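Exam revision sheet. Question 4 asks you to relate a sequence to its structure. Input first:
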Amino acid sequence: MSLDMVVVGKDQLDMLMPLILEQQYDAGKEVDLASTRTFFEGIVGQETSFQVMAVEKGAAVGLVMIDPIPNLQFADNVAYVHDVYVTESLRGVRGIGAMLVAAAFVESMRRGYEFAEGETSPDNRAARNLYGRMSKKLGIGCKEVGSVRLLVDLRPGIQRARTEPGYLDQLATPRLISRLGERPGADG
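Answer key, structure tokens:
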């Protein structure tokens, strides 16, 4: 099966909406298609906030959202990586969550973010390990800040991209990203 990581644009909304509705239902939220679609129409295609989805056979099977947040301790803007979601039937078996996180880091570097930050519950060791593993494989740094925040230093990847043209394109290839997340149970 071929899996692609796609930065979501307005032309992919029809493909994305079933996954968003599944995610909302799984989270126990009231599902309102019209307001959910209106919300996503307003946020997709932006330069600073963006979404990456995993696509297989023309269907969205995973999503990660990235928004800028101020973090004056480290940088003016930090890419906040959140709401990593993989459709229930594919969780934990193919590393799709890992691929989404790696793709979020790569696209954040491409957009000039020097740091990325994520949050997880203190007992979600799998998610914390995922961030550390993806950071190490991508040649960037990651440290825990508090019990639930993870700070990823994207600057080494950005620096390498300056000296090696095409470096981020190489990182973003689905084949490489799939090798980064190939460990069973890698989804967080």
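Marking note for examiners. The helical segments are 13-26, 33-43, 96-110, 125-138, 155-163, 167-171, 174-180.
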